[in-house]
Design a protein that fits this description.
Layout lengths: L2 H8 L2 E4 L2 E7 L7 H7 L13 H12 L8 E5 L5 H8 L4 E6 L2 H13 L5 E4 L12 E5 L5 H16 L3 E6 L10 E7 L14 E6 L3
Parallel strand pairs: 3-4, 3-6, 4-5, 6-7
Antiparallel strand pairs: 1-2, 7-9, 8-9
């Protein structure tokens, strides 16, 4: 069975609790994601199938501040479900690219974009190893959960700033955030992936700044 069919059959479209304007294919207790791994050896941890705090906050912020992306070219980096890119497209971005290294995520993004009536280009691969993209703004949700990844993403974002590309970051205050480089723009209640709002500081949106 193809990836698209697996997602459509096992992950129902549901409104996002803190961003009800958007519906996503989301895993639940009966989704049987473990079966995906048994049928496809390339199946990786399905980050794209769940809500993550930084992405929720960034999508909410973009929809509440549409002027931040309206008429601009957007890259949703490490897009996962595509929620941030979808919010950008719904807010009037002229062009949205969603990039992820997981091919399941790419299919999920395409399905989620279609379900929300927006057009998003997808890129399967690691854009952080290359030159800055030809965009006006990069949006980064939840890419600071591991030290090596955080360092690589920070170096890429530095290259983006040097190319005069604006950067917005959504994150639930993880330890590997480059805290000295971030300007807090907004905070939103709610938990992160695997937590509840009660045991979380909440989720934040930052502008990534020069040293």
């Amino acid at each position: 069975m193809r990836i698209r069919q697996l997602i459509e059959a096992n992950l129902p479209l549901t409104p996002v609790p803190s961003v009800p304007e958007i519906r996503l294919h989301k895993a639940g207790p009966g989704s049987g994601l473990s079966r995906f791994a048994q049928t496809d050896k390339s199946f990786d941890t399905p980050y794209w199938a769940y809500h993550w705090g930084g992405g929720l906050a960034l999508a909410r912020h973009v929809l509440d501040h549409r002027e931040s992306v309206a008429g601009r070219r957007v890259l949703d980096l490490g897009a996962g479900s595509g929620i941030v890119g979808i919010a950008g497209a719904m807010s009037g971005a002229s062009y949205v690219t969603a990039a992820d290294v997981d091919r399941y995520a790419i299919v999920a993004i395409e399905l989620n974009a279609a379900a929300n009536g927006v057009n998003i280009e997808t890129f399967h691969g690691d854009v952080t190893i290359g030159s800055p993209p030809d965009v006006d703004i990069v949006m980064v949700g939840d890419l600071f959960y591991e030290a090596g990844l955080a360092a690589r993403v920070t170096a890429f974002l530095d290259r983006c700033l040097a190319a005069r590309i604006e950067v917005l970051v959504g994150d639930p205050w993880r330890a590997f955030l480059p805290h000295g480089r971030l300007k807090l723009l907004a905070e939103y209640p709610g938990g992160d992936f695997g937590t509840s709002g009660a045991d979380s500081r909440g989720n934040a949106v930052f502008a990534f700044t020069r040293e």
